[in-house]
C-alpha cells in the first residue's frame, strides 16, 4: 500500500517577532483528509502558526508541505494564493459590499461561478444568496465564510476559532454542521480553538502548542487518558494531581493503591505525581452501604451542579488532605457539608516527581 503524502507536514518551524520567540521548532504531521485541532493558551502562537502555513507570514526557519508539496522551505516559497489553502479567520470577514453569492464566487474563474450555488447549498445557505452579509446572523456568516474558503477547492482548510463568536446553542449546531461539511469535502483540516470540548469532540487528532513547540499530538482519547506530562494533564480537562509512590506496576496515594498505566518507566519506591481524573473518583453518602471497604471518609466542600453531571469538591478527613474533585453523572445525591465516602476506581497515570512540584489537587478546577 503506497501511503498518501500527509495533508500537512510542518518541520522545525520557528518564528520570532522582535525579541520574542513565538514558535521554537514546531513539528506537526496531519494525515491527508484528517481533522486536526490545535489547542494552546492565549498568545501561544496558534494564529501565527496558521499564518505561516497560509503564507501570510514567513518563518525564520523550518518548512511547510501541503499534500506532499513543499510550499515553504529555505530558498523555496509558494505564494499564498497558490497554496490551495482555505482560511476561515476568527471573524467571518466577508466582503461587506458583496452579496452572499458574490462573496463565495469571489476569485473564482467565470466558468466555475456556478459552483458558488452548490457550495451555498452544501452549507445550507442557498436561500440567502442575494442577501448582504449584515443581513445574516453570526452563524450564517460563518457558514458563508466556510463556503468561500471551500470554493477554491483547498487541499487544506485552516480555521481560526471560527465558532467563538457564536452563542453556545448555535455553536454546537454550527460546529457539528461544519465538521460534517468538511468531512464530506474530504479536506485536511487544522482548527484552532480555545474550546477543549470542541477539540475533543470534533477532531481526529489534537495538538497542544506550548512554549513554542507541539507538546503532544494525539487522538482525543490518548491526549485525555494518557497525557505526556502532568502539565498537559492539567491543561486538558479537570485533574487531581496527587503525590504517590510507585511499586511493581502500582502507585500508592492517599487514596490507596491503584494500578498504574505507565509501568516500567517508574522505579520501585520512586516518588511520583499521579493523575486522577474527577470521573475516576466515586462517592456516596456516608450512610450508603454500597461504599467499598477501602473507601475513605470525606466532607463535601462544594458542589457544582451542571445537570448532566456534577463536580463535587471533597476534603478527606485525614490530616492535611488537599481537596479532591469528583465528577458524578447526574445528581450526586449529596449536599455541601455532608459526610461522604470516596474511593478511586480504575488505573491511574503517574510520572516521576518533578523538582518543582505543582502537586496541587484539582489545579484546573476554579474556586
Ligand atoms: N505581527 C506581530 N508582531 C508582533 N508580535 C506579534 C505579531 N503577531 C503575533 N505577535 C505576538 O506573538 C504571540 C503569539 O500570538 P498569536 O496571535 O499567534 O497567539 P494565539 O495563540 O493565536 O493567541 P489567542 O489564543 O489569544 O488568539 C503574541 O505574544 C503576540 O503578541
Ligand atoms: Mg489567535
What topology does this entry show?
Layout: E1 8-17, E2 20-30, E3 35-40, H1 46-54, E4 61-66, E5 69-73, E6 76-77, E7 85-88, H2 100-105, H3 114-122, H4 138-151, E8 156-160, H5 168-185, E9 188-192, H6 196-202, E10 205-210, E11 213-218, H7 220-225, H8 230-235, E12 240-247, E13 250-253, E14 256-259, E15 271-276, E16 281-285, E17 296-305, E18 309-316, E19 323-329, E20 339-344, E21 349-352
Parallel strand pairs: 3-9, 3-10, 7-8, 8-9
Antiparallel strand pairs: 1-2, 1-4, 4-5, 5-6, 10-11, 12-13, 12-15, 13-14, 15-21, 16-20, 17-18, 17-20, 18-19
The structure holds adenosine-5'-triphosphate and magnesium ion (MG).
Would you kindly provide a brief summary of this structure?
Helix content is 20%, strand content 35%. The chain is α+β, with helices and mostly antiparallel strands. It has two domains: 8-225, P-loop containing nucleotide triphosphate hydrolases (Rossmann fold); 230-352, OB fold (Dihydrolipoamide Acetyltransferase, E2P).
Any descriptors?
binds magnesium ion; 367 residues; Rossmann fold; binds adenosine-5'-triphosphate; OB fold (Dihydrolipoamide Acetyltransferase, E2P); alpha+beta; 5-stranded antiparallel β-sheet
Strand content: 25-35%
Order of helices and strands: EEEHEEEEHHHEHEHEEHHEEEEEEEEEE
CATH architecture of the largest domain: 3-Layer(aba) Sandwich
**In terms of per-residue confidence, which ranges show pLDDT below 50 for 5 or more consecutive residues?**
357-367
Number of strands: 21
